[in-house]
Design a protein that fits this description.
By secondary structure, the chain is mainly α. The chain folds into 2 domains: 9-125, no CATH class; 133-302, no CATH class. The protein is built from 16 helices and 6 strands. The chain has a two-stranded antiparallel sheet with strand order 1-2. Strands 3-6 form a two-stranded antiparallel ribbon. A two-stranded antiparallel sheet has the order 4-5. Helix 8 crosses helix 9, helix 8 runs antiparallel to helix 13 and helix 9 (161-178) packs antiparallel against helix 14 (259-272). It is elongated and about 60 Å long. The termini are far apart.
Length: 303
């Protein structure tokens, strides 16, 4: 296979993970897969693969060994640093090496690196790409509308396009206070850059990259029928805090919000939601007041 063709010239230094370090990393795998073989999980659909990788996370403060040893794990693609979230996770190659106690040789290293490109890079590195300004605005608008399920989704069409623009503009106004240097990019959302399409509605189309960048929490595959929404509700219609924090951090970056900025975010969400009567396609009764309070608590407590 391609690995053997890459073998020539590949000189691998001797690399061995210490037993205590292996034990630490193996605990990450055990915690994440509840006793199942990891590769059973990694053979499943993309969403579950992403969830598995992210569940192996640990922070630098958790690593009680030398910084050099941590850098070596990064160098040999055993772990990956998720910069936007500030933690490390195991890669496909790392899971194989740790779970099956594989000793790396030139041939095995190349082979596992090739597999890593297919089974890790496409799942995580694609997802780790930064959001574009338009994508941040769409996500924050979706959050403000509380469009958190397929039964309670955000639909932008010819009839409500001006309300959609107004709500998204509230999101943009707030984001410009967080990202002032990108003001020009936010302002270009309404410049009608796609010729032949409505200058407002074009912003709510071609959103296929957002699901990839949010671990498939954002849904846009059949927006005409199902609308746009974030999969943030648990079965009992309670907002899932971890999922919501993940999306908010994708939108806001790792920036810690000041008390004033928290208030401005809560105010922006309230303004965005004012148009929910015309923008939400509802099949269920949602207690919006309850969800807004849950969202407010998450912002005040976690940011």
């Amino acid at each position: 296979m391609g690995a053997s063709s890459n073998l020539e010239g590949h000189k691998m230094e001797f690399f061995k993970i210490e037993a205590k370090q292996k034990e630490f990393l193996l605990d990450r795998i055990k915690d994440s897969n509840t006793g199942k073989n990891s590769f059973v999980i990694l053979d499943q659909q993309n969403k579950k693969k992403q969830g598995f990788y992210l569940s192996t996370k640990f922070f630098e403060k958790d690593w009680t060994f030398s910084k050099d040893s941590l850098n070596n794990l990064l160098k040999y693609n055993i772990i990956y640093f998720v910069e936007k979230d500030g933690f490390y996770i195991l890669t496909y190659k790392g899971v194989a090496v740790i779970e099956y106690d594989i000793e790396l040789t030139n041939e095995i290293d190349i082979y596992l690196n090739d597999l890593n490109k297919v089974f890790f890079d496409k799942q995580i590195k694609e997802k780790d790409k930064p959001l574009k300004e338009k994508e941040k605005a769409i996500l924050l608008t979706t959050i403000g509308l509380l469009a958190f399920s397929s039964d309670y989704s955000f639909v932008a069409n010819e009839e409500n396009k001006y309300e959609a623009k107004e709500s998204t503009s509230y999101a943009i106004d707030f984001l410009e206070t967080i990202y002032p240097k990108y003001k020009d990019k936010f302002d270009k959302m309404w410049d009608g850059s796609v010729k032949g399409e409505d200058e407002i509605l074009q912003n709510f189309r071609r959103l296929d990259e957002i699901p990839k960048k949010t671990g498939n929490l954002f849904k846009a595959s059949n927006r005409e029928k199902h609308g746009l929404y974030l999969d943030l509700l648990d079965e009992d219609f309670v907002i899932n805090k971890d999922k919501t924090l993940y999306v908010l951090r994708r939108v806001l970056g790792r920036k810690k919000l000041s008390p004033e900025e928290k208030d401005e975010l809560i105010d922006a969400i309230s303004k965005i939601g004012q148009n929910s009567y015309s923008l939400i396609k509802s099949k269920v009764n949602i207690n919006r007041i309850k969800l807004k309070m849950e969202l407010k608590d998450i912002i005040l407590d976690e940011f």
